[in-house]
Design a protein that fits this description.
The complex is a heterodimer of chains A (418) and B (104).
Chain A lengths: L4 E10 L2 E2 L1 H9 L6 E2 L15 E2 L7 H5 L9 H17 L11 E6 L5 H14 L9 H5 L3 H10 L5 E4 L5 H14 L5 E8 L4 H9 L30 E9 H6 L6 E10 L12 H14 L6 E5 L6 H15 L7 E3 L2 H4 L6 H15 L1 E2 L22 E2 L4 E8 L3 E8 L4
Parallel strand pairs in A: 5-6, 5-7, 10-11, 10-14
Antiparallel strand pairs in A: 1-2, 1-8, 1-9, 3-4, 7-8, 9-15, 12-13, 14-15
Chain B lengths: L3 H15 L20 H15 L14 H12 L5 H4 L16
The chains are: A alpha/beta (418), B mainly alpha (104).
């Protein structure tokens, strides 16, 4: 019989707090982590349509991970290290007591080591000195650098890989960890989602794609407004989330505190368009349905959805339509919140940070508000969306994550019952 | 009607993008409904137009740029400082204006 999988540790580095307790306090207060970008010097911000992001301003590598690791660990991997370190400590799992090959690391990252990546590419084209390309350029920009670094820092020698599916990367990482444990490949997996690419080139690319909000440059904290009538695009964010997931037997053996059960997962492709979802929402609804089936959870048990909800016109409307199509009359009874309204869209980290919010909602019965939900868009109208905190005993919850490349993921978490 | 030279340049850009004869593209054509451009294609077209006319088109101005003619009028307004573009661009005749629709 396949193992049951549980979540026993959490760690986060986010624009609204470094560390789970600060993050959750800020989230429940509906605090926005969006601010004006000031870090693109010497690039003037005039040329950027959007000028705001969910930036982490108080991260210190020395303080949070003991060292900057020189030029060997890019910013996203530093976040990954900090979040996984907190999650491991929170779980109480001591690696020296574990069989190292039974603990895996699965990271979700959409962009990877873009800080050094951009710097080195720029230098090469500007100065045309190939011999001056940094020796760490390749190891740092290789997309699995964070999963390698987390393994080296923790001694986890089990399955180790990185999933890159754009904005759904770490929802897939969580889902693949579920498979890994269910099928007996590992007792525990350190799951991480991380990205830190608020960099001049990547940010310019998202501006050119006209995917970002530009209407609220003067009021950054109002810009990320999922489901609101005045939303005009997503706000880029950066950060990392980490969850320790393990088999129930393993958690019991070490008498671990269990936050929630990781019950199921589905991954699909719309096979439709690189950046536009199918407007009828059928593929999103199918993904949620398949995840519930994999989890053996009935749609009538779902009390909360942590929506993908990036604050784009079409994305939020499609997701709302899919929720209504799947849950029918119950759709308005399900509490829904959008973590991106607080932290922006952290790309590869979004699934993991959303999963942390979902886990804490199940564990505490508290659901964080959706910031800036001031004027509900009739195209997204679901009664469970609220700009106020909600209290609810949650039996089962869905975490949605959709990514460029026409991919969708849904993860089912539920209250743990022995 | 916008300046004929501007209209022709925009039609030429569209013809190259769509790989079809410029003579079959009219100013009244709706970018999405008549020419089949999805929202990403409209963004790509505007990117080309920004280069051709040395312009930066703010996101807020996308609303209303639904037809070949409305794009041309908008460009003409931007190139002529006496006529503010945002006011000059005609309203689209359909509600399916190609606003920002990227999603993920």
């Amino acid at each position: 019989m396949a193992s049951r999988v549980v979540i026993t540790g959490l760690g986060v580095v986010s624009p609204i707090g470094i560390g789970v307790s600060t993050f959750w306090k800020s989230a429940m207060a509906g605090q926005s982590g969006i601010s004006t970008i000031t870090s693109f010097d010497p690039f003037p911000m005039d040329g950027y349509r959007s000028k705001i992001a969910g930036q982490i301003r108080n991260f210190s590598a020395e303080q949070h991970i003991g060292s900057s690791h020189g030029d060997r660990v890019d910013r996203y991997a530093q976040f990954a290290l900090a979040a996984s370190r907190e999650a491991l400590s929170d779980s109480g799992m001591q690696m020296e007591k574990e069989s190292p090959h039974r603990v895996g690391v699965i990271v979700g990252a959409g962009m990877g080591g873009m800080v050094m990546g951009e710097r080195e590419i720029t230098q090469l084209y500007l100065h045309q000195k190939p011999h001056r390309v940094h020796p760490n350029f390749i190891p740092v920009i290789t997309l699995n650098s964070a999963s390698g670094i987390v393994a080296m820092a923790t001694g986890a020698k089990g399955p180790n890989f990185t999933i890159s599916t754009a904005c759904s990367s770490s929802a897939h990482a969580l889902g693949q960890a579920w498979y890994c444990i269910r099928t007996g490949q590992a007792d525990a997996v350190i799951v991480v989602g991380a990205d830190a690419s608020i960099t001049p080139l990547v940010f310019a690319g998202f501006c050119s794609l006209r995917a970002l909000s530009s209407k609220f440059n003067e009021q950054p904290e109002r810009a990320s407004r999922p489901f609101d009538r005045n939303r005009d695009g997503f706000v880029m964010g950066e950060g990392a989330g980490s969850l320790i997931v393990e088999s129930l037997a393993h958690a019991r053996r070490r008498k671990a505190r269990i936050y929630a059960e990781l019950a199921g997962y589905a991954a699909t492709s719309e096979a439709y368009h690189m950046v536009i979802p199918r407007e009828d929402g059928e593929e999103v609804a199918t993904t949620m349905r398949l995840a519930l089936k994999a989890a053996d959870v009935s749609s009538s048990e779902v009390d909360y959805i942590n929506a993908h909800a990036t604050s784009t016109n079409i994305g939020d409307a499609v997701e709302s339509k899919a929720i209504r199509a799947l849950f029918k009359n119950r759709a308005d009874k399900i509490a829904i919140s959008a973590t991106k309204s607080l932290v922006g869209h952290t790309l590869g980290a979004a699934g993991a940070i959303g999963a942390i919010a979902t886990t804490l909602a199940i564990h505490t019965g508290q659901i964080h508000p959706t910031a800036n939900y001031d004027d509900p868009d009739p195209d997204c109208r679901l009664n469970g969306i609220s700009r106020d905190p909600q209290e609810k005993k949650i039996r089962a919850a869905l975490l949605n994550a959709f990514g460029f490349g026409s991919n969708n993921a849904a993860v089912v978490l539920k209250r743990f019952r022995a | 009607m916008a300046d004929r030279v501007i209209v022709d340049k925009i039609i030429q850009a569209l013809a190259e993008y769509l790989k079809r004869d410029a003579g079959t593209i009219k100013a009244a054509h709706h970018l999405r409904d008549d020419l089949g451009l999805d929202s990403m294609a409209v963004i790509e077209l505007l990117y080309k137009i920004e280069e051709t006319f040395d312009l930066q088109i703010p996101d807020q101005d996308l609303v209303g740029l639904a037809t070949v003619g409305s794009v041309a009028s908008y460009v003409e307004g931007r190139l002529s400082p006496a006529k503010p573009a945002a006011k000059k661009a005609p309203k689209p005749t359909t509600t399916k204006a190609p606003t920002k629709r990227k999603a993920k």
